[in-house]
Amino acid sequence: MTAMDSSQLLSKRVLGALGLLSGLCIFLYVLRVLATGTDRYLFTAQNLALAWVALLFGWLLTRQLTKSSWLSWQAIGLSLLFVVFLPNSWYVLTDFWHVEPTGEISLLYDISLVFTLVVCGFALGFISLYLIHIELMRRLSRRLSHLIIATTLLISSFGIYLGRDLRWNTWDVVSHPEGLIINVSDRVVDPLEHPRAITVTILFFVLLSTMYAAIWLASGPHKSERH
User: Fold this and answer.
1) How far is CA 149 from CA 17, 160, 200, in A?
2) What are the extents of the domains in the chain?
3) Gyration radius of the chain's alpha carbons
4) 84-99 pLDDT, tens per residue?
5) Within 10 A of 133 (CB to CB), how many other CB atoms are there?
6) CB-CB neighbours of 151 under 10 Å
7) Using N-to-C axis directions, what is the helix angle for 73-85 and 42-64, rounded to 10°?
């Protein structure tokens, strides 16, 4: 048994399942808007779209790698876009921060809405990462492939901290790179001065890496042929 390639992983059945989850999330959001007359939870639709963008760039990268090496400018560019957008898939967990009694609708309804977003976002993120992991396994040693994936998860965990605590978003990489670079460099150069950055990053890294490792172990022996 070998690891699934991208065509198997993104089969019509898998995309259909992701579409079903996404459809439920959008349905619950639209129903809430109709019932309350407010768009308080508009962020659910926005964050869901960003999670899909991560999967799109992961898929585009796998397609590009069938035509060129990973060192081509196209593959490097898609890799950077993938890493930049990937944290959005798991950032959705922090959206529970917004759930509170509003008197507009049942609190349980809002919990269900955000929970659906989290399930869908996590599924999109882990499938995106799995796509890239398989491509790495075809080209590099098992140990180096795992190390790159772990580093990607660590970067994503730090990205979640930047988004939730410092309120940076993906678009700020282009629109406000100076301020983002300053914030990141401060925390990288002197992490002990920013304990919150350490604790949040470690928390999400342990959570995401453990969940992904469980998925990886459960999905097969992953005997990929290196080219």
Assistant:
1) 25, 16, 19
2) 6-218
3) 18
4) 999 999 999 999 999 9
5) 21
6) 11
7) 160
> For residue 130, what are its two tokens?
């799995």
Angle, CA 192 vertex, CA 176 and CA 189 arms, to 5°: 50
Please tell me the distance from the alpha carbon of residue 217 to that of residue 45, in angstroms, as a whole number: 31
Q: What is the pTM of this model?
A: 0.87
What the block records as the tokens of 17 is 């399942």
Residues with Cβ < 8 Å from 180, sequence gap 6 or more?
A: 162, 168, 172, 173
Burial 177-195 (b: 16+ CB within 10 A, else e): eeebeebbeebeeeeeebe
Per the document, the length of the chain is 227
Write phi, then psi, for 82 (nearest 5 degrees): -60, -45
Tell the residue number behind the tokens 């898929």, with chain if given.
59
Express each pLDDT in 119-175 by its tens digit. Answer: 999 999 999 999 999 999 999 999 999 999 999 999 999 999 988 877 666 765 655
Taking CA atoms, 205 is separated from 20, 24, 179, 209, 223, in Å, by 28, 28, 24, 6, 26
Q: How many CB atoms lie within 10 A of CB 43?
A: 15
